[in-house]
Amino acid sequence: MSKILIIEDEDAIRRVLKRIIADENKAYLVEDVEDGIKGLELVQAHDYDLILCDIKMPKMDGVEVLEKLKELKPEIPVIMISGHGDLDTAVQTMRMGAYDYISKPPDLNRLLNTVRNALDQKQLIVENKILKKKVSKKYEMIGESDPITHIKQMIDKVAPTDARVLITGPNGTGKELVAHRLHDLSERSKAPMVEVNCAAIPSELIESELFGHVKGSFTGANKDRAGKFEAANGGTIFLDEIGDMSLSAQAKVLRALQESKISRVGSDKDIKVDVRVLAATNKDLRKEIAEGRFREDLYHRLAVILIQVPALNERRDDVPMLILHFTNVIAKEQGMTPKQFSKEAIELLKEYNWTGNIRELRNVVERLLILGEKEISATDVKMFASK
User: Which of 66, 305, 309, 351 has the fewest CB atoms within 10 Å, measured from its CB?
Assistant: First the structure.
């Protein structure tokens, strides 16, 4: 059922609009009100999927109502109703975020098409939000220990900015979760986040992967190809394991950061890019710099903000929450009933030496769920969690 509110001071127009829309689809629940103040009161008290609002009204005109609606419920599409003399104002309301406008007297087909399209857009926004929540859930940061709370607080401060962030920490600690949270909470969250595992790409191909290439620039370059920086334009690029990047590729990344432009392999043409760069590594980049394997100038460009992700052994208080989280995730993935862990089992796992960090804990939980008894006991842990 789609709830639609009509805000219109002319009784005759209001009744015609309500009848036309209600007759079009029995799934439309249409309410109407005669002025903007009452309309805003209803919007504050109830949820609507669409609002039709007149431009010229006493007490509060439609422009002011639209402004308030965008503050209260920005996700609700608003169709403005304009008289013959209101066309310039109607165009102005479109710039303010109105979905569309219809003229008086309303054309039946245009009215119904606009209503249907606006409701479709609203449904798409809702579905996208649900999908984004699912994606965000995948990259949820689990834990309430002091180290992880500090990182969450730091992310909350840094995410809304465009500051570059270097994320460090041992393998398996969840550096990619930090990167995704930074992107999801940023102004760029609606744009793409492109991930590049620098360690997984051969050194001779890394420049082509990052910056693209033109046809004929090397053997196998059969056509022009855009790189990851172009794909991330307007959004975020996450350079994972950047400590494994070749020095020549580092030089090109440095130029991209300094000048906000890149050039494809085999081309002299500059391409402007607007990209926020997040990087991660498990290496000591200071040591890599001292040994000539990493550019110091690139390090300083990347490390505007440094976030050190702790090893699991440094945040043992989070182990029970992580066990519960992985139990539910794995049980859902495997189509099995979640098992309980005894207090003794949890205490044993808290004291375990997690050299493989979060990744190792997940593997151990999965192994225990498959091989352990209905309640995972300390005996199960000693039998199946040992290295």
Answer: 351
Q: CB-side exposure of 104: number of CA atoms within 13 Å?
A: 21
Q: From the centroid of its chain, how far is CA 226?
A: 23
Domain coordinates in residue numbering, the chain: 2-135, 139-310, 313-384
Architecture category of domain 2-135 in CATH? 3-Layer(aba) Sandwich (3.40)
Instruction: Please name the fold of domain 313-384.
Output: Helicase, Ruva Protein; domain 3 (1.10.8)
The CATH number assigned to the domain with range 139-310 reads 3.40.50.300
**260-295 pLDDT, tens digit each:** 999 998 888 899 999 999 999 999 999 999 999 999
* pTM exceeds 0.70: no
Q: What is the pLDDT of residues 219-272, one digit of tens each?
A: 778 888 889 999 999 999 999 999 999 998 999 899 999 999 999 988 888 999
